Amino acid sequence: QVQLVESGGRLVQAGDSLRLSCLASGGIFSEFVLGWIRQAPGKEREFVAAITKSGSYQYYADSVKGRFTISRDDAKNAMYLQMNSLNPEDTAVYYCAADPPPRSYYYSPLSIDFGSWGQGTLVTVSS
Known about the structure:
By secondary structure, the protein is mainly β. The chain has strands at 3-7, 11-13, 18-25, 33-39, 45-51, 58-60, 68-73, 78-83, 92-99, 116-117, 121-126.
């Protein structure tokens, strides 16, 4: 069973940068498709970014493209989300998500349909 733990969320000001981390245990991390999904207060969960096996492909929501960068370090079983130029609309709980094989074989870009989720980390951006 895959377990995911996020960290790095905190209160920042508009324009600041922040890096979220996700550490995984269980399964073969290097085979996972990984993603970040966020949920703002009173809103539905929203796709943020995803990265495929070996980092071959990265996908981003239009709202974060050019500001956020997703990356992975398979040696550390870790995934990261570097967030730059944050604005108040980025305020949300950010969830780390993963699809190990065989689900990973069928991942659809921009989907939030992941099999494993972390508990979330809160990012608050003040204006």
